[in-house]
Amino acid sequence: MSMNLTVSHRGQSYQLALLPDDTLAILQAKLEELTSTPPPLQKLLYKGKSNKALDDQITLTQAGLKDGMKVQMLGTTTKELDGMKAVENEQQKRERIMKERASKAPTKLRSTGSSASNDINYRFHKLVPLAHLPEPSSALNLLQRLSDDPAIRHIMQKHKFTVGILTELAPHEHPELLGLNENAGQQIKLRLRTDRYDGFRTYKEVRRVLCHELTHNVWGDHDNNFKELNSLLNREVAEYESSVQAGTNVLGYSGEVFEGPTTQLDAPQVLGGGGSGASSLVADSMEDRRRRALEAAERRLRLEEEEMENSCGTAGRSSVTK
């Protein structure tokens, strides 16, 4: 009597007919032929179980598989794995170049007291996508974008945040969580993907969760201390980007203030006269608009943060003892 299984992978369904006494190794070999996913990278999910803790020489029946059962397979193809290795090699090359640059004395226009070594210490020291999930190279690119984000690097420098590993949460493993901070910065996990694995969440959503989890480097519980620091981080990110968009001088993550040349075109131009009063009115109007935009953003962030707290796995002991 044959055993019929339906295996789903990357939106494709495969109908397999096997014998109950066939081993998991036989099933995985057939799946490799169909999906180009090597057996060591295959993760089979069915009825609350997974094959990862099982010996591949046990039978399908012993593994808990039954006729007509639906199985979801997660895994990276050989081609994707090669692409991920290429991206990792490029990342290692970039880190090597950055370390070489940091070892040399930088040219500064004006320093606020931070040393070049801070740029090495206050950062994400390792980026780790989950190799068994789809498109690990795309996940690594998203983690790299977060790591290189000037506003994020700015607040990490300012508050002296260090994170050992920045990685991702698998939706099926932690469906209720958007983020997790282990041991106050030893490792931060973020939900990068949609629930159906058909894409990635928006960059701003993921970055907002990252600010939340960075706050857990200092405070474990979602108390008033946590809320004040988290609001401050979100406000500093918004102010940093607002300053960049406005073309004003900003404090960079390296602790240096880079000042561009000042010309007559930099000042507000007012038709009908060069009185200082007219110029200040224009400046005040721009500043008022910027202030109102920041206040509106803060209100929106507060509401979003309340919702985010319910999806954070770091509150209480997890931030300091996991």
UniProtKB/TrEMBL annotation:
Residues making up the signal peptide according to the UniProt record: none
- The WLM domain extends over 115-302
GO MF annotation, one = proteasome binding
Q: Where is the composition biased (Basic and acidic residues)?
A: 89-103, 286-303
Q: Which InterPro entries match?
A: Ubiquitin-like_dom, Ubiquitin-like_domsf, WLM_dom
Biased amino acid composition, Polar residues? 311-322
Residues in Ubiquitin-like domain copies:
1-74
Chain segments carrying region Disordered: 89-114, 264-322
Q: Which domain of life is it from?
A: Eukaryota
Name this polypeptide is given: WLM-domain-containing protein
